[in-house]
Amino acid sequence: MEKFEIHILGCGAALPTPKRLSSSQIVNIREKLFMLDCAEGTQMALRRSHLSFSHLQAIFLTHLHGDHTFGLIGMLSTFGLLGRIQDLHIYGPQDLQRIFQPQIDYFCADSPYKIILHEIDTKTPQTIYEDRSVSISTLPLSHRVPCCGYLFQEKPTPRHIRRDMIDFHHIPVSQINNIKAGMDWVTDDGTVIPNALLTTPSDPVRSYAYCTDTTYRPQLTELLCNVTCLYHEATFAQEHALLAKNTFHSTAQQAAQIALDAHAKKLILGHFSSRYKSEDILLQEAQQVFPNTLLAEDSMKIIL
Asked: Is 298 a catalytic residue?
């Protein structure tokens, strides 16, 4: 299967701790890197991950709170010092231009690459990025400021060639891509060899959803239907459900309910409040609702 990996660079909430940095991730799809949020310390975490800075295609910010953006301008400056020349696209909510363009103009004025800011509508689901490997759509969230999550959907891969059948029917190499795309083969005597005999099905399409920061939003489940892996904030335990509601966050139990109702395959909890010395209580509460739940950890790699 083609590569589809999630690298957790930081999974804490507003206060970074010795144990956890604040929010940032890398999604690696077929060696194209996409960053989700960029908290303080992100570029150091990125170095420790041994992922290539030069493979970063775009950055997607959920919202403009500091624990999701304080690492951005420093990292952009570092990219310039490293001699990056490829354009870098940054997507985020309204005020992205107002807040970051002056910093870019000041700190990155001599950068050898172009930084392009895209303000997006956080209230309506829409596809904002697409290439031959992946499409990326927004997921409307509910927070104290405009906020959205992101859904990565892998593009289907071609069917797999059965080499034994290709050799048996003496199909030329020039026709292999057509066969992969679904074409039948017609022999010299006019016999049609169905594609189903020449190939095996392509790999299942995978998807990844990143939802932080947000209150409990049952309407998300329609957009997340059958998602392969869901990362959902779990800032609080259920005993702090009222605090979660008042601060526009979610509990671990609520995150698990979203995963259950969306028929997700796997749930990763993150964005943990620093009030908890151990996040085991969050894991236990979530697993009672959705057993296939894991706690995010800094430097964790998830292979889909």
From this structure: no
